[in-house]
C-alpha cells in the first residue's frame, strides 16, 4: 500500500446511506489519486460494496469497527458505551498516526466530541471551531463558527478568525484574506458585549480585519472570512440552506409555467447549472473542524457520493498544504493577545 499520499480515514457507516454511498465516493477520490483511503466500519458491509467495483491497485483498505453511533444517541453517552464505533476507531487512527485526517457524515455531535477528545486540540487553541464555505456573488467566503461553540468569549472569536483566515488562504487561495465580524451594524460600536470586545481584539490582531459586516452583506463576496459565535453561525447557515432550497423550487415552478417559461428555461439552462453548482454543498463535501492536531471534516448527513469524494479531496489538500502547521503558526502570532484577554476573563469569573 503506497504511503506517499495523504491517508484519510473515512467513517464508512456514517450518513443517511452508509457504505452504499460513502464507499463509491471514497473510491472516486482514491481513483483520482488524491488520497490513500482507509474505510472504517463493518468489514463485511464495506467489502460487499467494494466487490461492486474494480479496486485493483487502488490505495484502499478496511479497518473493522463493530459499532455505529446512531443519530438519536447522545454524543457523550455513545462515545462512552461504544468504544469500537466507526467514528471512534477512525479518530483513533488519526491520534495514533495511522491516518492524517478523518471525515464522517454520521452523528455530527459524536464526530465533534470524538475528534476533540481523541485527536486533541492543536497547540495554543482553546476551542476548535467548525468552518464552512458560503457561496457569494463573487465566489465563496468562510464562516466560522457554525455550531461547535454556542457560548464564547472574545478571545475564542479571535482564534476562530485566525484559523479561518488560514483556511481561506490555503484552501481558497486568498492572500491576506479580509476578515469581518458579524454584527447588527457596520459601525464599531454596534453589537452586543461579545461583539464589541471581539472587535477590539480583532483590530489589534495580525489579521486583515476590515470591521463589522451585517447579515445582508454576507453574500456580496466583499470579505473572505466572517467571524461569529456558533449559535449565530449555525442559524445563518441553516437559514441560507433553507433559502437556497426554497428559491430553487420557486424558480423551477415559475419557469415551468406556460410555453414561454419553458423556452426561457432552455435558454437559461447553462446558467441554472452553474448556479446549482455554486450553492451545492457537495462541491466542498464537508465543514472542517479547525484547531485539532489532525484533520477532521464533518459532512452533511444526506451527503451523496460526490460530497464524500469532495470531502476526501479536501482533507487530502489540507494535509498537502500543511494547513495545520500554518494554523498553529498563526495562532502563535496572536497568543499573547488572546492570553491576556483569557486571563482577564478568568479573573472576572
UniProtKB/TrEMBL annotation:
<comment type="subunit">
    <text>Homodimer. Probably interacts with PlsY.</text>
</comment>
<comment type="similarity">
    <text>Belongs to the PlsX family.</text>
</comment>
<keyword id="KW-0444">Lipid biosynthesis</keyword>
<dbReference type="GO" id="GO:0043811">
    <property type="term" value="F:phosphate:acyl-[acyl carrier protein] acyltransferase activity"/>
</dbReference>
<comment type="pathway">
    <text>Lipid metabolism; phospholipid metabolism.</text>
</comment>
<dbReference type="GO" id="GO:0006633">
    <property type="term" value="P:fatty acid biosynthetic process"/>
</dbReference>
<dbReference type="GO" id="GO:0005737">
    <property type="term" value="C:cytoplasm"/>
</dbReference>
<dbReference type="InterPro" id="IPR012281">
    <property type="entry name" value="Phospholipid_synth_PlsX-like"/>
</dbReference>
<dbReference type="InterPro" id="IPR003664">
    <property type="entry name" value="FA_synthesis"/>
</dbReference>
<keyword id="KW-0963">Cytoplasm</keyword>
<dbReference type="Pfam" id="PF02504">
    <property type="entry name" value="FA_synthesis"/>
</dbReference>
<comment type="function">
    <text>Catalyzes the reversible formation of acyl-phosphate (acyl-PO(4)) from acyl-[acyl-carrier-protein] (acyl-ACP). This enzyme utilizes acyl-ACP as fatty acyl donor, but not acyl-CoA.</text>
</comment>
<keyword id="KW-0443">Lipid metabolism</keyword>
<dbReference type="GO" id="GO:0008654">
    <property type="term" value="P:phospholipid biosynthetic process"/>
</dbReference>
<keyword id="KW-0594">Phospholipid biosynthesis</keyword>
<keyword id="KW-1208">Phospholipid metabolism</keyword>
<keyword id="KW-0808">Transferase</keyword>
<protein>
    <recommendedName>
        <fullName>Phosphate acyltransferase</fullName>
        <ecNumber>2.3.1.274</ecNumber>
    </recommendedName>
</protein>
